Amino acid sequence: MLYHLLYPLHTSFGGFNVFRYITFRGIGATVTAFLITLWLGPKFIRFLQRHQVGQVIRDDGPESHFSKKGVPTMGGLLILFGLCFSTLLWVDLTNVYVWIILGLTLWYGGIGAYDDYCKIKKQNSKGLSGRGKMALQIIGAVLAGLVIANLPEYSTTLNIPFFKGFTPDLGLFYIPFAMFVLVGASNAVNLTDGLDGLAAGPTVVTSGVYLLFSYLAGHAVLANYLQIPYVPGAGEVVIFCGALAGASLGFLWFNAYPAQIFMGDVGSLSIGGALGMVAIVTKQEVLLAIVGGIFVLEAISVILQVGYFKISGGKRIFLMAPFHHHFEKKGWSEPKVVVRFWVVSIILGLVALATLKLR
Ligand code: 57M
Predict the structure, then answer these.
(1) Distance of alpha carbon 240 from alpha carbon 205, whole angstroms
(2) Nearest to 269 by CA among 140, 196, 183, 176
(3) Each residue of 76-114: pLDDT tens digit?
(4) Ligand 1 atom 7 nearest Cα
(5) Any alpha helices (H) in the chain, and if so which ranges?
(6) Contact, 85 vs 68, CB < 8 A?
(7) Could you tell me if the CB of 191 is within 6 A of ligand 1?
(8) Ligand 1 centroid to residue 194 C-alpha, Å
(9) Ligand 1 pocket, 264 CB below 6 A?
(10) pTM summary value
């Protein structure tokens, strides 16, 4: 909004020229989202406590989690507010990509909010049915995939990190592929969100890396030089990524161990969807498996554990899945598991950046 209000005035006041620059607006969006989330956090936590929007804890989980009963949940609403407010404040509102990303993020947030609401109302850890949740996620993903694949300047080719010469065109198959990315990312973040700060930390790293990739993808000269796909208009996604990183950092302030608030499904499903959609817009879908490697590993640990549990008649690979619980069961303290996972996430972020030069 500021871009539309203030940039046109640059002819009378030269200083307003800065609103033209994506870098300036990206920093503005990051700081704004962080400060809003930080400012609203305590008020929002008190509001949730007053309305008893507290976490229901499973009785079959690690014992260290029993004391978390009643911690306010649905903190994702705070993240979504900071993210949307800041994005709308700083972005060029005529940019179609940002609207698609915001739409998908809010759709997934709506699914999560409904799920959280059901769990709190029924006072058990089962919300919306797994199938119902999946069906709603697929509908959102297919719609988003159809819209984006039909944009004239968008290409349905696939880009594979380290293999820049190999870019197969998926054509119509791009829609199921996009669906896989969106539904997979959303559920992977959801599975990761089981320890204080565990999902928010890698979210900051992933959005930070995609902030850079959006800038490069939207810059014809740099994209050409680095041999990455040029997506006209993708530069504005920098503002969304900055706002996501800022809002997640603000949320992390309160979600850090011992957490005063959890994000709930409204947070985890929407963040996963947002990251998936950003990866799709910037044409760096496969890269998400690297930079978001923590989310992928958590999801794989669940698939392996559940699969093996079924075929072996009750045996396990990990002491408990998702595998952050495995380390807890081994005796690592919760902050140790979380910080070590952050360390891995940062290293994976660096590997993702290396794909810019290595081919
Ligand atoms: C949700 N949610 C947390 C909070 C958060 C198939 C199966 C593996 C699925 C999986 C599952 O349901 N995962 C998705 C994970 C829950 O957190 C809430 O949920 C939101 C995210 N969706 O924002 O609102 C609990 O996680 C803890 N937490 C924190 N700090 C945070 O910042 O400590 C969350 C955020 C919270 C809190 O304790 O209550 C969750 O874990 O439920 N299921 C599981 O994860 C379960 N695994 C399991 O059953 N494994 C089995 C195999 C055979 C399937 C096994 O390995 O034996 C575990 N989850 C729990 N206890 N809580 C195991 C038991």
Answers:
(1) 14
(2) 183
(3) 999 999 999 999 999 999 999 999 999 999 999 999 999
(4) 302
(5) 2-6, 22-50, 76-90, 96-122, 130-149, 174-192, 200-217, 220-226, 237-255, 264-281, 287-291, 293-311, 324-329, 334-354
(6) no
(7) yes
(8) 5
(9) yes
(10) 0.96
